[in-house]
Amino acid sequence: MNPVLSALAPVVVLVALGALVARLRWVGPASVKELSNLVFLVLTPALLFRTMSRVQVQDLDFRPVAAYFLAVLVIFAGTLLACGFSRRSAVLALATTFGNTVMIGTPLVALAWGEPGLVTLFTLYTVHTVVLLTSATLVLELAVMREAAAGGQARHPVATVLTALRNSLLHPVPLPIVAALLFAQTGWSLPPVVARPLELLAGAFTPMSLILVGLTLAATSWSVHWRGALALSAVKNLLHPLLVAAAGWLLGLSGVPLAVMVVVASLPIGANVFLFSQRYRVAEDLVTASVGLSTLLALGTVALVLSLAPLL
């Protein structure tokens, strides 16, 4: 089977399954919010801690990752400037930069480049979630504080920043990452009584997240959001890899490391963005439509980028 199709097919099937469940009314709209909380507050921390608890930062080469994040910085900051500083713009900025690197990226890179490609990919994993989700959390918390100040609940700017920093660290995303990285540096291993439940919870994250996307997608009005979804998908699927390739060229990178970064940048919008939109109750329908459309378009766009990767 074509490597792009084999990597994307499970994602499409799980999203479609969620949409079918919603159409059959096996899960109602009220339950979707509760399931979203379960994924965000329980499954996400388990996945993050389990993944990051085995990372030895000193053994990783971050040079190819620099090209990736130069492009991320341009797109993230550009989205905030274009849309204004708000919860909505922060979620949209995350949508244009955060890809489905776990479920699609791993099998795709493994099929295309094997072990050398996976080493580069796992180096990106080390900072991808830490940087993007933590940055998004901080921006969102600052936006929440700004909205509160506009509503007459003003506080000193320093107090606002400190409160936002506290809220962004004492959060279901950054907190397990920081705790796991600290644990990893001790050289210890998790005891089976802890490691096995974490493994089971982490394994449930991806299917549950994608089914949730499908559940919400079934109630999303495509006639209203298709233009916005197409714009976000174009930035994520095409502009992001183009900017990564340009950044890599400027940094003098070539070969497998740069090719892996460019292909990973072309991956569709990740389900974590949907969870953030649900968590902060902003742009939910638009993000849901964008995740679905970005994944469908990736059947063509990822194949295109993958075919051009050997030229890097």
Automatic annotation (TrEMBL):
Location in or out of the cell: Cell membrane
InterPro entries recorded: Mem_transp_PIN-like, Na+/solute_symporter_sf
Superkingdom: Bacteria
Residues annotated as transmembrane: 6-23, 35-53, 65-83, 90-113, 125-145, 169-188, 200-222, 229-250, 256-275, 287-309
Coiled coil (UniProt feature): none
BP GO terms, sorted: transmembrane transport
Keywords from the UniProt entry: Cell membrane, Membrane, Transmembrane, Transmembrane helix, Transport
GO cellular component terms given for this protein: plasma membrane
Gene3D superfamilies xref list: 1.20.1530.20
One Pfam family recorded for the sequence: Mem_trans
Bilayer topology: Multi-pass membrane protein
Family: Belongs to the auxin efflux carrier (TC 2.A.69) family.
Name of the protein: AEC family transporter
Species per Swiss-Prot/TrEMBL record: Ramlibacter lithotrophicus
